[in-house]
Amino acid sequence: MRFGILSDIHANYAALGVVLGEIDELGVDEIVCLGDVIGYYAEPRECLEVIMQRKIPAIRGNHERMVIGEINPDTKEGAVHVIEYTRAQLRNEHYTFIEQEMTNKREHGEHFLMVHGSPRHKDEYLLSMQAFIDNLKLLEQKWPQYKVCFHGHTHMPSVIAPGHFIQRIHEDMVVPLQEGKHYLINPGSVGQPRDGCNRASFAIYDEGEASVYFYRREYDMDWTRQKAREAGFPDRVISRLEQGR
């Protein structure tokens, strides 16, 4: 089977439209989402409705959890404004979907494990080599049946396994997976890349071929910026779109 892998859309409807259009042209059997459909930008309702209408299996990211009440007391004022804006945009059916259909972790049939942060913790940022090593060990011990765990949260595409380390995926790339290894794979962010490349990022996992295809695509960034300005979002959040950081 071929799976389209999305993560960290962050209410960037323009980017989501381009990515889904591309995936439809490339052809997959199913699309899944690793969380943070909402947050940061100004079209959360539109993005959630696409996920709901297309029946895309999705897990809960930290931004979904913040909107339904799981907020750190140290959350910055600008972030609180975005959360409040997002809450005002959503309707009852969106809250029901987040609470009942999105989970913190998903064992996706016999195919792979889906998490937002890491296998170890829903909000862990997989950035250090030690964090990757520890989570690969946990994956092998607790979910030995899965060769692949897909994760998001860092907004940086990567492929990590013992002796197999790939980051800085700024162009289209295919990565063959080596037999006998367990992998942590991040498809990058659809709506707010942070790896120094501002193009929307997504992946296609070809299970039969044992390969992951990464894609970077341009979208109407001006639309997303304008919508965020109209919503009164912080300049630092808007500037991230262009910077890709």
Protein architecture, described:
This protein is α/β, with parallel strands linked by helices and 245 residues long. It has one domain (2-243): 4-Layer Sandwich (Purple Acid Phosphatase, chain A, domain 2), CATH 3.60.21. Helix content is 35%, strand content 20%. It has eight helices and eleven strands. It has a six-stranded mixed sheet with strand order 3-4-5-9-6-7, with helices on one face. It has a five-stranded mixed sheet with strand order 2-1-10-11-8, covered by helices on one side. A hairpin with a 2-residue loop joins β6 and β7 (164-166). The two termini are 33 Å apart. The mean pLDDT is 95.
List keywords for this structure.
single chain; 245 residues; alpha/beta; Purple Acid Phosphatase, chain A, domain 2; six-stranded mixed sheet; 8 helices; 11 strands
* The CATH class: Alpha Beta
Shape: globular
**CATH architecture assignment:** 4-Layer Sandwich
Number of domains: 1
Give the percentage of residues in beta strands. 15-25%
- What structural class is derived from the secondary structure elements? alpha/beta
- Arithmetic mean pLDDT: 95
Number of helices: 8
Fourth-level CATH superfamily:
Metallo-dependent phosphatases
**What spatial order of strands do you see in the largest sheet?**
3-4-5-9-6-7
- Output the radius of gyration: 17 Å
* Amino- and carboxy-terminal Cα gap: 33 Å
Helix content class: 25-40%
CATH names the topology as Purple Acid Phosphatase, chain A, domain 2
**Can you summarize the main beta sheet?**
6 strands, mixed
Q: List low-pLDDT spans.
A: none
Which series of helices and strands comes N to C?
EHEHHHHEEHEEEEEEEHH
